[in-house]
Specification:
The chain is an alpha/beta fold. It has a 7-stranded mixed beta sheet with strand order 6-5-4-7-8-14-13, sandwiched between helices. α4 links the parallel β5 and β6. α2 crosses α9. InterPro entries: AlkB_tRNA_MeTrf/Diox (IPR051422), Methyltransf_11 (IPR013216), SAM-dependent_MTases_sf (IPR029063). Pfam families: Methyltransf_11.
Length: about 350
């Protein structure tokens, strides 16, 4: 167990073997804040499995579908002053890097596979976490975060990511943030997403920090196009790890109703639901290239859809309700929202750093 002593405090913040931070005999609010700050930077297993692992697996296919620039993002970048240094935090395949030839761009993303795609295209990029950006304070003139925050699984982590974006820009610098909205223009999309039930939400997505599970040792491997689920065939009895994953998975997911609509187990309406698994269909012929694995299939991280000839991965999303994104900024003393708008089923804000 790792101990973190805080000067001037009589209690102890510990990091347990399960990766969870605990405060013992706490009498110091300052220590609580330090422990909370450390905890928010520890990536929950939910994000590791259903964001990081997934995007590493689907990166080449994902990149091939991401080339169109959103007009309002392009407009924001094209109106920046000549010579501006711009950070794209969560740059994906780098489609916005270099969009304005009069600016300088740097990018980062949690997916090493996507970063390699960016680097191969000659972009200045490296792997970094949105809640712990490795840039000095005030280094850039502007920053963008396009479709990133909705992959963070707690309010504290989403708020921390915004604080980091504001921190790295100069005073007077602008930050553009976009996130998926609950209010989808195409309502039929909601029936294709799997909502997380209330028990799952309370355990992982609740108002406090999520419980941090032990890291998975699951390695991604290629899946031959014609291979059936050989992993299960070779292992008639599930290992303890795989059994645990299956039990956990069965607790997390809700099922389609008979009329093919999806409802949460606590009978929330679809519009009230904000936590989803959104599928990505990786064609069999792309699975070997991107490294999707039989182990992922066996553990429930992915499943096969023979009718569509694809390996289906679930990506975690927290979709934002109206006003939610603004509330994350409302109590920040060094930033103010200068614009907000709804664009292509996304809530968007532009934030200015004031001090």
């Amino acid at each position: 167990m790792k101990e973190i002593n805080v000067q001037g405090a009589s209690s102890l913040c510990t990091l347990g073997s399960d990766g969870e931070y605990n405060v013992q005999d706490s009498v110091s609010t300052s220590e609580d804040r330090i422990c909370s700050s450390l905890s928010v930077k520890v990536t929950p297993e939910l994000e590791k499995k259903y964001v990081h692992h997934v995007y590493d697996a689907i990166a080449p296919h994902f990149s091939s579908t991401r080339f169109a620039k959103w007009p309002k993002v392009a407009s924001f970048l094209n109106t920046l002053p000549l010579g501006s240094l711009v950070l794209d935090a969560g740059c994906g395949n780098g489609k916005y890097l270099g969009l304005n030839p009069d600016c300088f761009f740097v990018g980062c993303d949690i997916s090493a596979t996507l970063i390699k795609i960016c680097a191969d295209r000659g972009n200045e990029v490296f792997v970094a976490d949105a809640v712990n950006l490795p840039y000095r304070t005030g280094f850039s003139d502007a920053a963008i975060s396009i479709a990133v925050l909705h992959h963070l699984s707690t309010e504290k982590r989403r708020k921390k990511a915004i604080e980091e974006l504001v921190r790295v820009v100069k005073k007077g610098g602008l930050v553009l943030i976009t996130v998926w909205a609950v209010e989808q223009e195409d309502k039929s999309l909601l029936t294709k997403w799997t909502p997380l039930n209330q028990k799952y939400v309370e355990e992982w997505i609740g108002p406090g920090s999520p419980r941090i599970r032990s890291p998975s040792s699951m390695a991604l491997q290629s899946i031959p196009e014609t291979e059936e689920n050989r992993f299960l065939g070779e292992h008639g009895k599930d290992s303890k790890e795989n059994l645990t994953e299956r039990v956990w998975e069965s607790m997390c997911l809700t099922s389609p109703s008979e009329d093919n609509s999806v409802i949460s187990k606590d009978e929330k309406t679809i519009m009230d639901q904000q936590e989803y698994f959104v599928p990505w269909h990786l064609p069999y012929h792309r699975a070997e290239v991107s490294g999707a694995s039989a182990c992922a299939l066996a553990s429930g991280l992915a499943k096969k859809d023979d009718k569509k000839g694809a390996v289906v991965y679930n990506r975690y999303y927290h979709v934002f309700s109206e006003g939610e994104l603004e509330r994350l900024v409302s109590d920040m003393d060094n930033a103010v929202i200068v614009d907000r708008f709804f664009d292509k089923s996304n809530w968007c804000i532009i934030v200015e750093k004031t001090s």
